Amino acid sequence: MQPLGGFENLLFRSDNGRVVRLTHTSRRSIGQVEAEVAFMRHLAEHQVRVVTPIPSTAGNLVESFELTDGSPIVAYAMNEASGAITYPQDWSDAHLVAMGELLARSHLAASSFDPTGERRPAWTDPTFDPGMDVLSDEEVRKVWRELIADAASHPAGGADLLIHQDAHFGNVHLEDLDRITLFDFDDCGYGTAVHDIAMVFFYWLIVGWDDEAAAARRFFDRLLHGYRRHIELDADWPDGIDRMLKVREAAIYAIISTSAVETSAFENGWMTGRRQRVLQRVPLLDSPLADIL
User: What is the pTM of this model?
Assistant: First the structure.
């Protein structure tokens, strides 16, 4: 087993093309990991391109064991995603269309997912924003709570569909124009289809485009072209995305602010003036998305 690293979990790759993930139960309960893996299997069974979980030798999708200090670890194995990570600047229009189709298929499949055990948390659960737990800036914490309430008051802020919730470009492998595989379901939770799209857009936007408005128009023109082959969105989706973007912006600000790892030049640039933008609720794109599109 070769270590692959990991941000909040430990990942290892075996020689036969499988990946094992270890999660400490202080982060996710055994029941939550079981629900995550059951969701992955459900999507795979409905022909959604995701990494497929593999049963243990005992026939279980999830196994748990204790470390020498007695603390429990939960583990599961999966097939390694084919292809490789490709960053937004290298994505073609065809890639965006394919990503839209992948999200739509996952949402259609999720609508029939009915877990028998523990359910995954709703997107409003604090477990999804760990940086806020240790952020000492109460002013930002207060605005973050208000931003969540504001987003939850919109139809896009509901919690009726189990979504990936973190389908950024580091969590998909691209093989060719129409073969994109989604992985890392650690943050899957109950939200809405618009919420899921908003999270993809957030990470598309912050990579640093010369013309952010043009990048936004291209993103939604092509991604929704693929998505709408399967599902249509409600008319007020741009406003819902604006609200979800502000929630994620505040959460990422908190994570970077409290990280023990030295920040990169990109992160330092992104953080410049970010606190005031969060507190003043400046739209991530400077203008409402509906005005830009």
Answer: 0.94
